């Protein structure tokens, strides 16, 4: 059964609950994962949230480079381990790895070396998160945000090498549209898609622009997608757009579930 949520800080959990959303998707990097005492003080805000924190995004904190010459392998591995523990404790079932800046390949760094660095991080996640009930969804980003992993195809080619049910792929309607990635990619790689992000023209609220939502919805129905769908976008009129987008996303879910299966 599909659920709909919104990407926001935990401070907005009450607002989303009041609008009827099923869950909130919060930044993982807002948790002080490298400070045990600060983490203990912060966790209750997530554990006692008025709406379930079922997904998390913004994986790595600023300055923690995943590829390139400035990576700190031991720090990354410890962070990955703590991330899985915290997400599981909070009750999140999906954590998104986008982190465009942290994974952008420096000009003087070879792509094969960057790919191996990313694969190493993904392997650590597969190992450290085993049995904790959390899935990692690797997020393709459009070329304006990163020069590495820019399509569902790119992401799948990496996660296939990990070959673990813990490491899967996210499909983001905004990034796909920005780089003109065909929706047929969702059909081709349906077995690898663990999570969906949506927005609309200009990365604004779903239902406010000209994105081909009818085709997108039909495609999700065709692949029998039953996972979560999170809006990740800018809000101009928060209350009104949350309410309108909730109705829009509800209709979308009903269309996906029509004759599904």
> What's the main sheet like?
8 strands, parallel, barrel
Strand order of the largest sheet: 1-2-3-4-5-6-7-8
Kindly, what is the distance between the CA atoms of the first and last residues, rounded to a whole number of angstroms?
11 Å
Q: Could you list the spans in which at least 5 consecutive residues all have pLDDT below 50?
A: none
* C-alpha-based Rg, rounded: 18 Å
Structural class of the secondary structure composition?
Answer: alpha/beta
The helix content, as a percent range, equals 40-55%
Number of helices: 10
Report the order of strands and helices.
EHEHEHEHHEHEHHEHEH
Mean pLDDT across every amino acid position: 97
User: What would the principal axes of the Cα set say about the shape?
Assistant: globular
- β content, as a range? 15-25%
Number of DSSP E strands: 8
What would you note in describing this structure?
This protein has helices at 13-19, 36-47, 73-90, 100-103, 111-128, 152-162, 173-178, 184-188, 213-222, 238-257; strands at residues 3-7, 23-27, 52-57, 94-97, 135-138, 167-172, 193-198, 228-231. The chain is α/β, with parallel strands linked by helices and 261 residues long. It has an eight-stranded parallel beta barrel, surrounded by four helices. Helix 1 (13-19) links the parallel strand 1 (3-7) and strand 2. Helix 3 crosses helix 5 (111-128) and helix 5 (111-128) crosses helix 6 (152-162).
């Amino acid at each position: 059964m599909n659920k709909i949520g919104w990407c926001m800080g935990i401070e907005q959990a009450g607002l989303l609950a009041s609008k009827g959303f099923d869950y909130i998707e919060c930044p993982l990097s807002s948790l002080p994962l490298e400070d045990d005492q600060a983490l203990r003080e912060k966790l209750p805000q997530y554990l006692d949230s008025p709406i379930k924190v079922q997904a998390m995004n913004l994986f790595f904190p600023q300055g923690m480079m995943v590829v390139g010459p400035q990576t700190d392998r031991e720090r990354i591995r410890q962070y990955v381990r703590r991330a899985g523990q915290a997400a599981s404790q909070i009750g999140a079932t999906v954590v998104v790895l986008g982190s465009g800046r942290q994974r952008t390949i420096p000009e003087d760094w070879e792509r094969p070396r960057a790919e191996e660095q990313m694969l190493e991080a993904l392997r650590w996640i597969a190992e450290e998160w085993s049995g904790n009930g959390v899935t990692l969804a690797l997020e393709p980003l459009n070329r304006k945000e990163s020069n590495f992993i820019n399509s569902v195809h790119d992401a799948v080619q990496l996660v296939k090498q990990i070959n673990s049910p813990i490491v899967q792929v996210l499909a983001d309607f905004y990034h796909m549209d920005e780089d003109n990635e065909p929706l047929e990619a969702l059909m081709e790689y349906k077995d690898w898609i663990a999570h969906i992000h949506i927005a609309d023209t200009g990365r604004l609220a779903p239902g406010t622009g000209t994105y081909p939502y009818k085709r997108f919805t039909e495609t999700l129905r065709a692949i029998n997608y039953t996972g979560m769908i999170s809006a990740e976008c800018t809000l101009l009129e928060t209350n009104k757009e949350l309410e309108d987008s909730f109705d829009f996303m509800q209709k979308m879910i009903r269309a996906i579930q029509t004759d599904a299966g």
